[in-house]
Amino acid sequence: MYTIAFWVLGFGNLANGLWMLFWPEVWYHDLPVGIPDSGPLNLHFVRDLGAAYLPTIILLVLSARRWWAKEPTAAATA
Predict the structure, then answer these.
(1) Hey, where are the domains in the chain?
(2) pTM for this one?
(3) Rounded to whole angstroms, how far apart are CA atoms 20 and 27?
(4) What residue ranges in 1-78 does DSSP mark as E strands?
(5) What's the rounded mean pLDDT across residues 61-75?
(6) How far apart are the C-alpha atoms of 76 and 21, rounded to whole Å?
């Protein structure tokens, strides 16, 4: 059960992280949760958040393949 969820979350976070790193303006304006309502675009901050996704992506994908790491990873990424 965890394995599929970890792969889906890993690749979903990868897509979002890459979107934030390489196209922060598009991410800021096209994300459907109303990010522009929170203030002006800060490119540095958006890219920092995109980079912060990388350790989470690595942890999720590695844990999808290792049964002993699934529960600690689920707790850490929650």
Answers:
(1) 2-77
(2) 0.73
(3) 6
(4) none
(5) 75
(6) 23
